[in-house]
Amino acid sequence: MNNCPEILNAFALPEGERSAVPFGNGHINNTFLIRIAGTGKQYILQRINSYVFTRPKDVMENMQRVTAFLRGKIAAEGGNPDRETITLVSSRSGEAYAEDPEGQIWRVMLFVPDTFSPELPDDLNILEECGGAFGRFARLLDDFPASSLHETIHAFHDTPSRLRQLEDAAKNDPLDRLKDIPEEMAFARSCAAETRVLTDALSAGKLPLRVTHNDTKVNNVLLDKQTEKAVCVIDLDTVMPGLLAYDFGDAIRVGACSAAEDEQNLDLIHLELPKYRAFSRGFLSQLKGILSRDELLSLEAGARIMTLENGLRFLADHLNGDVYFKIHRPGQNLDRARAQFALYRDMEKHRTEAQKILLELYGG
Ligand code: ADP
Ligand code: GN1
Ligand code: MG
User: Fold this and answer.
1) Strand-pair partners of 166
2) Is 285 found in the same domain as 327?
3) Atom of ligand 1 at shortest distance to CA of 28?
4) Residue 233 near ligand 1, beta carbon < 6 Å
5) Whose CA is nearest to atom 5 of ligand 1?
6) pLDDT, tens digit, for every residue of 92-115?
7) From ligand 1's centre to the CA of 223, what distance in Å?
8) Containing domain of residue 100, as a range?
9) Residue 119 domain-assigned?
């Protein structure tokens, strides 16, 4: 069975010799591409990261409900549900997942063939497609009862609590790393008021809670290899109630940045407005007539605050000893934090232009 994780036997898959190879660049789950010889069939096998998701069965219940709902909507629009959303393969006992002897939860999905996930696209058409994919996701789920979903990670985009978690990490400082990052800590603390912008607007009832994806890096969109059109939004572990600003913001953080998330040369990091415009065009084209002016303008704040929030999270994980985000070299989480703070500072300089783009595209 070619190094296949044993758990694969628990799923209702066709017979045939199986092979497994590690796949993708995600920071969280363990992902394998599974091939079954003689069938031409391919699957994705994933072990849910139980450090990150302490209630993985809640994750699976959300995923099952949301993908079932999306399937109906996609079919009604004349699309192909097997290709345009995730399709879970049941276990032999009919569940959406299987549990291994250590209590770890695994799932199998249809592999969506002939696609790629963009890491750092320069092509504006690709960015517009990614915007369209996440905008469509929000539109299709507009009438899903958001509050019926589990909160798979508590306070996931509660930015003030991310600052508190950083302070906790600084207090504990298990690896004695705090002494080397006085500038980063001072910067994080100087942003305390800004961390509250979205949470305050939410508590004041100014922004609606929707079903959001909450982890909208552009590599969580699959695009068709031939046509480069968006096919499918993946990585649904964090789908739960949230603000549209989180989804727009996290995608801009990665998609409209001039450099990689862990770029060490901070001079290379800035917000690219043509990319911002391209992503926004795709995103907003799917949401015509749905957004109030407040929600539209919250997207601009979302981009800055998601960037700041990821900086706080990477810095906390650096202090905690890299226990949350996978790293591929020492210091990578610190580099990621510095890069996010640099991008945030540049975004601050472009606030007016960014707002103008959103208003122009949405016809405001
Ligand atoms: P993580 O939470 O670790 O980011 P993802 O669910 O995003 O995990 O999967 C990691 C990578 O695997 C994706 O970026 C994508 O390249 C690939 N992938 C995941 N699911 C599928 C699928 N159903 N079809 C094709 N590729 C997939
Ligand atoms: C993680 O799973 P992945 O790699 O798409 C993280 C996101 C961060 C991102 C930073 C569940 O996303 O919140 O923004 O890394 N996902 C989770 O790259 O914490
Ligand atoms: Mg991912």
Assistant:
1) none
2) yes
3) 3
4) no
5) 235
6) 999 999 999 999 999 999 999 999
7) 12
8) 6-113
9) no
